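Action item from last week, closing it out:
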Amino acid sequence: MSQTLLFHISDIHFGLEDNRALDWLKDEIAAQRPNAIAITGDLTMRARHHEFDAACAWIRGLDVPVTVEIGNHDLPYFNPIERFLTPYKRFRGIEDKVEQELDLPGIAIVPLKTVRRWQPRFNWSKGWITRPALEKCLRAIDTLPKGMRAIVACHHPLREVGTTGTALTKNGEEALRELAKRDVVGVLSGHVHDAFDIVEQTKAGPVRMIGAGTLSKRTRSTPPGFNELHWDGERLEVIVRNLEALPTPDMQIDDVPEDAMPPREPGEPVAPAGRVPLTDPPVH
């Protein structure tokens, strides 16, 4: 089997995007011609119309197959009626790419929704996997042709970091356990703005969790970057590409933090690059 090349990008945050990083990525796409691109959410900063217009125009300009996950920043912030009744209305410019399965040679990218328009807890930025969302993902995996492997794409890392009430992704452990039963190659996510490549142990077996950094100015402890994934039919190799050409291990954190804010306290997960900002960039 010939090698399949995937680009995994996340947290572009139009409204606070890094145009130098986006131009560099487009050059890489033109030069390498990946088989597909998985965008794991947070296309915008505050889900404003002009941010979505810019995000959709940029994504439509990517001349390769693309699947897009919804991030918590992509639901309306300032229009509660729209958030509850038509939360995905602003994706209309790329609705054919949102949560779309991509079937590639020997492997499929299968979406898993981790955002909700509301949650029975204070912090709605965190992930929540509903039963229908999980069942839809599992059904898609179970109906793949024999021999076809799966990569799952979502926005939030599936580990339930934190206490039971404030977990990063509610029902994440159950999702990981079900994915382990299906021998999923890996779970792609974003949200934390630093890359990672971690094997999570579950009662049903191990699951590989792969996180991409950000292409925005809202960096955590590493410069803007994306994941380059190489699949040869048996092994998935992850190379973290970034503007400063730092080696992959220097770009990856070894644990999943409890939120997507830049680290502030000793002991928080920080990649060896250690570019910890004193404050977050202002949101205008």
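Closing note: The two ends are 48 Å apart (CA to CA).
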